[in-house]
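Q&A log
Question type: sequence-to-structure
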Amino acid sequence: MSAPSSSPNRWWALVVLSLTQLVVVLDGTIVNIALPQAQIELGLSDSERQWVVTAYALAFGALLLLGGRIADYWGRKRTFLVGMVGFGAASVFGGLAQNGTELIAARGLQGLFAAMLAPAALALLTMTFTHGKDRNTAFAVFGTIAGAGAAVGLLLGGLLTEFADWRWCLLVNVFFVILGLVGGLLFLTESKADGNNRYDMWGAITVILGLGSLVYGFSLAEGGWGSLDTIGFIALGVVLLVLFVWIESRVAQPLLPLKVVANKVRGGAFLIQAVSGSVMIGATLYLTFHLQIVLGMAPFQSGLASLPLTLAIMVVAGIATNLLPVIGPRPMMIGGPLLVAIGLVYLSQITADGNYFTQVLPGLVIMGFGMGFVFVPLQNLALSGVAPHDAGAASATANSAMQIGGSIGLSIFTAIYAASAGSLEGLSGKPVLEAFASGYSAVFLAAAVGMVLASVIAIVLIRGTKSELLPQGDAPVMVHAG
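Response status: OK
Response body:
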């Protein structure tokens, strides 16, 4: 059984689980700032550079459902500890990589073990904080860290790249892993699903291949949306995912019980999480490129320049946590994405000779305000009303939505960037910087459209009274994010 809500160790468990969430989320972006240096040292092509980011998010997202079921059936604490060890080993492999193939493979292995870690951590959190204000507080802290992790990764990546070496963006995980292992052994209590459980292997195969094919197809769109390869892989991905749904509706113990996503509120939360992931993983990568390549910032400067996004998320998280029982999650889920969209539209006005304080900073602050209002209620909505037996699967779906959204979003943004920037052949000096800025501007506009779509999803699907959407009833307390 899991530690009950009254256990004195539950707050230390929250610290350990939140640290884990921080690691798996920030690793989606920590290498972003290091990519220009890594590309030069390892001789990466632009396509390989993108796959350093995509390999992690794709492996993470595609394997999360299987990871969630492993956590449910094998034991959540055991899965957590094994995932920690594997994640640390993959990080060392990546930190010592000698070429692009090794680095991309290491990032994929990181994603594989993160797919064990993340659902185990969220399921342990769900089983540890079962109701009341403690649950609301725990989910608010966890959700805020999940939301801010991408921006924290940019700051830490800049610090390590400039004052140590880009390889430390991977090697630093060893310290987190040691803390996670010690904390996990001391403060986490084992739990797993009851009964005689079987793995849904056909479901696992179809969803992994389907998501992989879909993301790979979108990654090929940089060369043109009309190419046979692009259309073929995207179509194959869709067919495999339809087959996956068909399998899940017929097996006795599905990898993803369809009731988890059939609920309109949870389904809406998963969709919004996917769009938010595309912005936090994809758009922040192009923000990094603009800060370093166009504005000429050093890596640490670039990381500091992204910090207002994190700070704004953390400040708003406390406000949103207090507002949640007063106004309910629906207004936040509608208004938050619209604020993010406004910030992205502001960022889309960047120019080659622009200034950070006038063209970038206000947009980041507005984005952070919006993301704070999205992330606080999002995790709770995604797991609301889920049976304990399905906690790992629901947790995996929530994380998978963000990672796959980030993978597909990054691929789409790359194609939009390439189309807007045009050919750079023969350009140098200011003209090439103008082309870069034009491409980045198009990416931010596309991300803004996505966040407007997220608001529409909330209007249509996140419906119900405060008590229906927030069944715990007790008011959450202020979250102090530091």
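Response note: Confidence is low (pLDDT under 50) at residues 1-5, 473-482.
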